[in-house]
Amino acid sequence: MKYFYKNLSIWLIIGLAFILLLNFFKKAPEDINHIQYSDFLKRVKSGTISDISINENTITWTNSNGEKFKSIAPQKPELVSPLLASGINVEVQQTKEPHWFFKTLLSWVPFILIIVLWFFFMKQGGGKGGGKAMAFGKSKAKLIDGQKSKVKFKDVAGVQEAKDELVEIVDFLKDPTKFTDAGARIPTGVLLYGEPGTGKTLLAKAIAGEAGVPFFSISGSSFVEMYVGIGASRVRDLFKEGKKKAPCIIFIDEIDAVGRHRSAGGGGGNDEREQTLNQLLVEMDGFEGNESVIIIAATNRQDILDPALLRPGRFDRQVMVPVPDVGGREQILKVHAAKIQVADDVDWKVIAKGTPGFSGAELANMINEAALLVTRMKNASKVTMNILEEAKDKVMMGAERRSLIITDKEKRITAFHEAGHALVAWMLPGADPVHKVTIIPRGKALGLTMQLPEEEKLSHPRSYLLNNLCILLGGRIAEEIEFKDMTTGAGNDIDRASNMARKMVCEWGMSEEIGTISFKGDPAQGGQGPLISQKTAEKIDRAVESLIAQAYSTAKNILTENSKTLDAMSQALLDVETISHKDIKKIVEENSPHVS
Ligand code: ADP
Ligand code: ZN
Question: Phi/psi class of residue 197: alpha, beta or left (left: φ > 0; alpha: ψ in -120 to 50)?
């Protein structure tokens, strides 16, 4: 598109220049006789001229034979009268006037240039989300023609329930009259909510693709600008455009950026955001009956949305787009694997099992990483199981940082730290099996212990959470046992353990001291909790401390009782950097014979 406008302006300029040149060389036909001014006066005196016409200082007339004559009169005739009186011939010359075409063109050139440049910058700015200054009140919605949106429901995998809820919308967009005739009311707004990367945008696109209608997409955050009033005018503009293109879909990503609960978030109200939100509500209420414009909004913070947004007639249909379960992951993997070369050894079931918690976006990313890894390899052309494993680690924890310079001491500390996590996890019955342990730094982590649940669970018993507390603390405890010292490396573990313990006490009612009362903060109130008395606050703190202390002593017992195994595992890590489930099994069997 950009190139199209660039080419257009170039051709315009060339064309104009060509016309100019033609006109420049073209001489007007001369069938008029030019007469000196003095001659003209003589003819007037002698009476040979009867009628003349004067245009500015050009005098024209026609003689009895029909011949045309012209003479130019001086600006100030009184100056030449004495000369004429003395019989001098006076010729008056006209300053050469440019051709009219040239004149008009000249006056238009700046405008044409400005218009051409404006077009040019608009096109350029639009593409990169720039050009803000020029498109002030305009909504920044990208219009993707529905006919061209190739995304279909089959491209969105593992979210069958959400799809089931949305087919009705597709039917409506395909044939609105069928619904209006039946007197059915179709929701104006659909709210898709779920974790980032679960396919909300993809679903909205698929609806447009299935129904073959245009798709406007805009991010809620782009409504909220520095200047008051801009957001509201953008919303107005967006809906105006949408109505023009109906039936169509307007997709608002990250609606929480505008739709946050109006009283939430301290520091006074945000006028701009409130105005924008009000405008959005007004526009949605403004739909009379069935205008075949469907607003789909996406958010991962449905809990902080202003209740006004969720009232009937607005986003009254809410569809959850969940993080996929193991079967969903397998389907998503297969959808994306269709685009790459896959070796025979790849079992998507196994991969799906090994990627708990992965969102659709992460799975897509993993497949992409695997494809990239293959292109870098000399002796492989297809994605194998090993390559997928490598890609998974990369997506999960960032790229390996083999170049990171680590001292031998640090390496030893990391080895014991990870072995500590792994050994505690291994010894605790009911904990997720240890999949692998590595001391190759990735992203921010110096090492990693990866556990894989045998089967996915939707809720966790208290014993499982207690086990996790022990495993989290195992790293630090192993460091203490071996080096009689502490490092900052355990910071993240301690953070996670404390959060988990606090949740067990305040949200899940898992401590005897507090009992089954929730002290969870209200997200709509900016995470602020209910009023708690000083006494209760102290009780909560003590309950959290006791959970952590209990986990600490359990983990410490395991590690001291199996110190030989801890040493052996750390040594193995120092030798080969990464050990698998099988390696650990062998080490434990050799060094802790009492464990079956
Ligand atoms: P969200 O809008 O929920 O943050 P997106 O729809 O933008 O997530 O997902 C990003 C990318 O991840 C998609 O373009 C797609 O490649 C992949 N993806 C996410 N969910 C799915 C899914 N359920 N099926 C197939 N691909 C998915
Ligand atoms: Zn750790």
Answer: left
